[in-house]
């Protein structure tokens, strides 16, 4: 009897991955990003949260290869005197935490709503999907901006800065759950009339058991694909909100807040404050999207080669 690892080695999934150079490259780059984010406290030259390490006299030092650059700061410093490489590593860490947290919240809400809408049908389906339609009728970024502004007014600017990470997870998560709900609903509608579900009903299994132990596992393929894409969207949403001043404060670096901090100095010659975090963000989102596209193609049954 073959082990799970042996089955994985012989699977079409791994076969397809090894034949796709773009997927391999994207996976390697994404792995490097994740490792840098996890190890940021150890690999970063300085802690941008520690005021002891920050000297305003070091502000706007250019990268090391420029004439006025310093070997102490490889990618230069920002307007507060923080090492750009360190703030980018910590900023990436923050953006990934927000992205993963927001997608987890989206997934929980969307999967539950989609499961019950698709399985129950009738009035419950109509009500839940109308709620999703109402949510979809507003651009999700506008919803996130509105919710962020409300939170800032409700908690105050100081409290918002301290609670910025969990609040952004909630804001971005609540603004884009219908994507999961619609995807799961469509999958459940295709699964609920199959023989294994009918058999579960015949032997008298409770509705909750049928939904979560039988239908949900067979609907997770679509969730895997959409989750990959949604992580990239959530990171971009955080960057957009921070750029507009409704996300992470400048004192707590994220990729979005770093880009926003540098925009005022871009035309004065300190271009690196915005450009480096911008490139960091673009590459990170790009590799996630490339992996998501590959995953969608591989997990699409119509493309399965056997």
UniProtKB/TrEMBL annotation:
The protein's location, in the record's own words, is:
Cell membrane
Can you name a GO cellular component term?
plasma membrane
Supply the alphabetized keyword list: Cell membrane, Membrane, Transmembrane, Transmembrane helix, Transport
Highest taxon of the source? Bacteria
Single biological process term from Gene Ontology: transmembrane transport
Q: How does it sit in the membrane?
A: Multi-pass membrane protein
Q: Which SUPFAM superfamilies match?
A: MetI-like
Give any Pfam family that matches: BPD_transp_1
InterPro entries on file: BP-dependent_transpt_permease, MetI-like, MetI-like_sf, OppC_N
Q: Where are the transmembrane segments?
A: 21-44, 96-117, 138-157, 163-184, 222-244, 265-291
* Gene3D superfamilies referenced in this protein's UniProt entry, alphabetically: MetI-like
The segment(s) forming the ABC transmembrane type-1 domain are: 92-292
PANTHER family recorded: ABC TRANSPORTER PERMEASE PROTEIN, OLIGOPEPTIDE TRANSPORT SYSTEM PERMEASE PROTEIN APPC
User: What protein family is recorded?
Assistant: Belongs to the binding-protein-dependent transport system permease family.
Put simply, this protein is called ABC transporter permease
């Amino acid at each position: 009897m073959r082990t799970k690892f042996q089955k994985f080695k012989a699977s079409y999934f791994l076969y397809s991955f090894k034949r796709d150079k773009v997927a391999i490259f994207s996976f390697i780059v994404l792995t490097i990003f994740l490792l840098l984010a996890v190890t940021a406290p150890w690999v970063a030259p300085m802690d941008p949260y520690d005021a002891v390490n920050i000297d305003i006299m070091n502000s706007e030092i250019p990268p090391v290869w420029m004439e006025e650059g310093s070997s102490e700061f490889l990618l230069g410093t920002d307007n507060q005197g923080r090492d750009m490489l360190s703030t980018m590593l910590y900023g990436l860490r923050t953006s990934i935490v927000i992205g993963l947290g927001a997608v987890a919240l989206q997934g929980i809400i969307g999967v539950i709503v989609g499961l019950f809408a698709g399985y129950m049908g009738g009035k419950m389906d109509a009500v839940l999907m109308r709620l999703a339609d109402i949510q979809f009728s507003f651009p999700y970024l506008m919803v996130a901006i509105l919710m962020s502004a409300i939170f800032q007014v409700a908690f105050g600017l100081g409290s918002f800065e301290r609670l910025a990470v969990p609040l952004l997870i909630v804001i971005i998560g609540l603004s884009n759950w219908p994507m999961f709900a619609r995807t799961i609903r469509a999958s459940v509608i295709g699964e609920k009339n199959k023989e294994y579900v009918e058999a579960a009903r015949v032997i008298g299994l409770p509705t909750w058991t049928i939904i979560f132990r039988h239908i949900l596992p067979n609907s997770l393929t679509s969730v895997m694909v959409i989750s990959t894409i949604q992580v990239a969207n959530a990171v971009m949403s955080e960057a957009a909100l921070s750029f507009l001043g409704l996300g992470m404060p400048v004192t707590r670096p994220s990729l979005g807040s770093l880009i926003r901090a540098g925009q005022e100095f871009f035309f004065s010659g300190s271009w690196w404050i915005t450009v480096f975090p911008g490139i960091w963000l673009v590459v990170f989102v790009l590799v996630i999207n490339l992996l998501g596209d590959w995953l969608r193609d591989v997990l699409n049954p119509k493309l399965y080669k056997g």
